[in-house]
From TrEMBL, chain A:
Residue intervals passing through the bilayer: none
Coiled-coil ranges from the UniProt annotation: none
Keywords from the named record: RNA-binding
GO BP annotation list: ribosome assembly
CDD domains hit by this protein: PUA_Nip7-like
Pfam families given in the database record: pre-PUA_NIP7, UPF0113
Tree of life domain: Archaea
Chain ranges of the UPF0113 domain: 112-190
GO molecular function, one term: RNA binding
Official protein name in the record: Uncharacterized protein
Lineage: Archaea, Promethearchaeati, Candidatus Heimdallarchaeota, Candidatus Heimdallarchaeia (ex Rinke et al. 2021) (nom. nud.), Candidatus Heimdallarchaeales
Annotated 60S ribosome subunit biogenesis protein NIP7 pre-PUA domain residues: 11-93
Organism: Candidatus Heimdallarchaeum aukensis
Automatic annotation (TrEMBL), chain B:
Family affiliation: Belongs to the class I-like SAM-binding methyltransferase superfamily. RsmB/NOP family.
CDD domains: AdoMet_MTases (cd02440)
Any GO molecular function: tRNA (cytidine-5-)-methyltransferase activity
Organism lineage: Archaea, Promethearchaeati, Candidatus Heimdallarchaeota, Candidatus Heimdallarchaeia (ex Rinke et al. 2021) (nom. nud.), Candidatus Heimdallarchaeales
Name this polypeptide is given: RsmB/NOP family class I SAM-dependent RNA methyltransferase
Organism of provenance: Candidatus Heimdallarchaeum aukensis
PANTHER family, sorted: NOP2 YEAST -RELATED NOL1/NOP2/FMU SUN DOMAIN-CONTAINING, TRNA (CYTOSINE(48)-C(5))-METHYLTRANSFERASE
Key words of the record: Methyltransferase, RNA-binding, S-adenosyl-L-methionine, Transferase
Amino acid sequence: MVKTETLFIKASREEEQIVVSFLLKEFGTKVMEIMNDKSIFIKQRGVKEVYIVNEELKDTIEFIRNSSLDLTKNIFLAGYPIGTIHEKQFQLEVTGGFYFKKYMEKRIIVKTQQFLYGKDIVVANVKEYTLPFKKGNWLAVYGKGKKDSELFYGVGKALVGSNELSSAPPNTVIIKGYKNRPFDLGWYLRFEK
Amino acid sequence: MLDEVSYTDVYDLGNKLGYLPYMIQRFVELIGEKETIELLKFNEKKLKTVIRLNNLKAQFSEIEFLLLQKKIVFKRIREIPEAREIVHSPISIGATIEYLNGYYMVQGKNSMFPPLILDPKPHEIIGDFAAAPGGKTTHIAQLMKNKGKIISIERSKRRCTALYSNIIRMGVQNTIVINTDARDIVKSKIKFDKILLDAPCSGSGVIINDPSRKTSKKEEDLARYSKLQTELLDTAIQTLKEGGTIVYCTCSLEPEENELVIDRVLKDNDIKLVDILFSFERGVTKFANYSFSPELKKAVRLYPHKTNGEGFFIAKMVKESG
């Protein structure tokens, strides 16, 4: 059998609170619609990866844990990953942005695809934004195609507020890009390499 | 160039194209000289790129609209409603924003048949044994409308990474990926409604994608694969509920990895083959010194040169009640 050191367990009450507080603060109470029949699980392998798991999968994970060969140590993925917990803070990732994008009402629409290559979004890249945002807010990043089709690019934390955009120099960074961290969808291609 | 030359001697052609002689001998025994020449010539071509549209993310019409905006020309494939063959694309089809959003999967056309033949339903628990890189797992999830449960098993941790990436990119939420040998799953006591076993194989049906296969496997390797495949299929049958369905497939054309494996498990287990309703060539009942159950005619063989796709063997079985 393949040896791993991974734990895949239901989140503790404290971990649950960290995640739920973040979701309520960033996305509002409506986000609980999607969380009502779900559980939060943690995959621990150095960092704590956070997964949203539905009731059916939760039962199966418990069944596997209680069988004669506990394969829960070998669970690579169950449900959907949304981010990580680090130093008692939840860190949203691109997969979480995808999962909750319906509730991410603060959106920034960009003119270029450079965010998908792990690069920064600067003032000059911004086409528009949907709602005013403050420094520190999480934003969903979208690109606008022809005939107004919108495609999700990723997520990021605003480094400046929307009220500063009109007066800021064009190279002011609004959202920082990360080549090796999963905030933009281009990460899928970089991750596979 | 191959079309311009008339090869009367299939062995001469095989030699010129770099095949080990035993392979040509076996192809001739299986499909005759004329068809072997067609197969060898086909294997020198390049397969058309095919994508599977993912309606877990967007409606087919919306995805088609986005592709057309990018001047990607595609056509439908008759038997597979979700498949589109790419006729022309001015850009790399595997690096578009639509691809990154999981609107489609780049996937071999014939690899879409095993999930369709499995016919998973939204309330079922499905096992996908040897699941990486996830084309079939994500297709099964799509057919289940992201409901029910899929347990995807993959032995290789490295290949689990690709499986993980594809599952989340395609928006699949009903799956548990377990990094273990499928033979361990018996001890977990999980019972499946349906299982897809796309068994590790010698790959003689996908030489068009991997020409190194012309020389990389010796005839003796087939027995090793056959043994592993039989063990995996035996395990899969043990974990299947009574009345449950199992689809066994390989991308090998070798009867030892296909009909022989099924013939063995039919003898040792309470299972029966069921007809596959797609109109492909049927499984063989005789090969070299082997003679297989006539029931093997219910299995299908997808020859590359006849299906314009990857080679596959597919058998569908049902576990009989106590």
